[in-house]
Design goal:
Shape: elongated
Organism: Zestosphaera tikiterensis
Structural class: mainly alpha
Strand content: 5-15%
Number of strands: 6
Radius of gyration: 30 Å
EC number: 4.3.2.2
Oligomer: single chain
CATH topology of the largest domain: Fumarase C, Chain A, domain 2
Helix content: 55-70%
GO biological process, one term: 'de novo' AMP biosynthetic process
Keywords: Lyase, Purine biosynthesis
CATH superfamily of the largest domain: Fumarase/aspartase (Central domain)
Distance between the termini: 45 Å
Largest sheet: 2 strands, antiparallel
CATH class of the largest domain: Mainly Alpha
Strand order of the largest sheet: 1-2
CATH architecture of the largest domain: Up-down Bundle
Catalytic activity: N(6)-(1,2-dicarboxyethyl)-AMP = fumarate + AMP; (2S)-2-[5-amino-1-(5-phospho-beta-D-ribosyl)imidazole-4-carboxamido]succinate = 5-amino-1-(5-phospho-beta-D-ribosyl)imidazole-4-carboxamide + fumarate
Length: 446
């Protein structure tokens, strides 16, 4: 019976398969075969053994390895023992010659991470492309921009979404960059000196890693440097926090008091209240982001190991790495679902624009007083601050209060009217949206 929720609830079957016990053991056997190929090239093992080693992968059952590990207390020794017994003479006795456990573990991790990152990048690219589409679709749909949860200035919904286009594209770049540093092989033997191959270690390494399509770490101890794993989890946690921000935005805009967007869904919102349309998918994104950020601490703690290695990272990484990828996988799937099913209530957006009775245009009037009226900016700011308070206290529009004030007579009527035409106070929003889209396309290689 599954105990961990990730085994059945979170993450796609595609990602779960990558981190399945069967798949990881298969990758470990692939690494052993690649090392055997290197041994052959270095004249340390008979020809043909590497292909026989690789062919044993389909006959190695996780249950067989796990049962032996429980008796021996060592996972890689158990694997090597099983593979060697299946190979028989003469190849069996050369399995793992001169290698150490983490030649197999770390290089297998590199193969697994390469596959997992391909899934993450594919789904992230899909999300970014959806965001580009939405940012252009809603490019000119007016809404209020909010800072500190308060009405600030008018923006467009497309402009809001273009910010996510940019941020998510930066994560795509970040993941590609860290992939080059973490998806590398480690074939260097005990303590990393290659001593077990009697001066032919570089040949073993080159042949093995070329076969696997990996570059080697320039140097290592008995394990690959853990800063790469920490950087990887950090990149995933940053992406997770960006998805969290998007999901939180949707949750806020779905509030009945705002009601500007909804997630189209046929799901039940509440077991008690039939009317509820809850942002459950978005809330799941936010919840998993907390788990993901917490995993980063563990990844950072794994960097300091004693001398040339200790085993403190091993148990942590067995939990850390699969769960980080299953979490981000679920979050990406949910974010794509949200973006695909997003409904925009433009009428609510227009209604909310007027809630503060034009006070969101106080900056425009301030600038007009400086540029056209010659009033010092600090003074103009204080004037509008007081007029704004009067507007709120008397329940009048800012335009009405401004026109009746002394400074209202210093500006032409058409200049005042222009300030309260929201479409004319959007700055360079169209160019900025397209600049974000261009950045994204370059990042994605589109």
């Amino acid at each position: 019976m599954p105990v961990c929720t990730f085994e059945w609830r979170y993450g796609s079957n595609e990602m779960r398969e990558v981190f399945s016990r069967e798949h990881i053991i298969g990758k470990m056997v692939e690494v052993e075969a690649a090392i055997m190929k290197g041994l052959e090239a270095a004249g340390l093992a008979p020809e043909g053994c590497w292909e026989k080693t690789l062919s044993t992968a389909k006959y190695v059952e996780p249950e067989e390895v796990d049962a032996l590990e429980r008796r021996l207390g060592h996972d890689v020794v158990a694997l090597v023992t099983v593979v060697s017994s299946k190979l028989g003479e003469p190849c069996g006795k050369y399995v793992h010659l001169g290698a150490t456990s983490y030649d197999v573990v770390d290089t297998a991790w590199a193969l697994v991470l390469r596959e997992a990152l391909a899934i993450v990048k594919k789904k992230l690219k899909t999300l970014i492309e959806l965001m580009i589409e939405l940012s252009r679709k809603y490019r000119d749909v007016l809404m209020v921009g909010r800072t500190h949860g308060k009405h600030a200035l008018p923006i467009t919904f497309g402009f809001k979404l273009a910010n996510y286009v940019y941020e998510l594209s930066r994560s795509y770049e970040r993941i590609e960059e860290v992939e080059g540093r973490v998806v590398q092989g480690k074939i260097a033997g005990a303590v990393g000196t290659m001593a077990g191959w009697f001066g032919r270690g570089l040949t073993v390494e080159e042949v093995a890693l070329n076969h696997l399509g990996l570059k080697p770490h320039a140097i290592s101890t008995q394990v690959a440097p853990r800063d790469g794993f920490a950087e990887l989890i950090s990149a995933l946690a940053i992406l997770g926090s960006q998805l969290d921000r998007f999901a939180l935005e949707v949750r806020e805009l779905m509030r009945d008091e705002i009601a500007e967007v909804f997630i189209s869904s046929g799901e039940v919102g509440s077991s008690a209240m039939p009317h509820k349309r809850n942002p459950s998918i978005a809330e799941r994104v936010c919840g998993l982001a907390r788990v993901l950020r917490g995993l980063l601490i563990t990844a950072l703690e794994n960097i300091p190991l004693m001398h040339e290695r200790d085993l403190t990272n091993s148990s942590a990484e067995r939990v850390l790495i699969p769960h980080a990828f299953l979490a981000i996988d679920q979050m990406l799937e949910d974010a794509v679902a949200i973006a695909s099913r997003l409904e925009v209530d433009e009428a609510s957006m227009r209604r909310n624009l007027e809630l503060t009775k034009g006070n969101i245009m106080s900056e425009c009037l301030t600038s007009k007083l400086v540029i056209l009226g010659g009033i010092p900016r600090v003074e103009a700011h204080e004037i509008l601050r007081k007029l704004s308070r009067e507007s709120f206290e008397k329940g009048l529009s800012l335009k009405e209060v401004f026109i009746k004030s002394d400074v209202g007579k210093t500006l032409p009527a058409e200049e005042i009217d222009e300030c309260f035409d929201y479409l004319k106070y959007l700055g360079n929003y169209r160019e900025l949206i397209e600049r974000a889209v261009s950045y994204a396309k370059k990042a994605l290689g589109m």
